[in-house]
Design a protein that fits this description.
With 76 residues, the chain is an alpha+beta fold. It has helices at residues 4-20, 50-65, and strands spanning 23-30, 35-42, 71-74. The radius of gyration is 11 Å and the shape is globular.
């Protein structure tokens, strides 16, 4: 089971990079399969590169730092 507090702590490390570009990220949930849902905010929300930000940025970092994370998806 993925520790929600660990996910939130890592998102706090990622947040300044996103904020520097006018965006942000907010934790929404994590399920029993290790899928983390986040909401991109600010400039990131409508950015055409947001999927790349999730996959190559947020997901890569979370998977490397939080045991059990399998994917990061945008919140619905």
């Amino acid at each position: 089971m993925v520790n929600e507090n660990d996910v939130k702590a890592v998102l706090e490390l990622i947040r300044p990079s996103l904020q520097a570009d006018g965006g942000d990220v907010e934790f929404v949930s994590v399920d029993e399969e290790g899928v983390v849902a986040v909401e991109l905010q600010g400039a990131c929300k409508g950015c055409p590169m947001s999927q790349m930000t999730l996959a190559n940025g947020v997901e890569r970092i979370l998977k490397s730092r939080v045991p059990g994370v399998t994917r990061v998806v945008p919140a619905k």
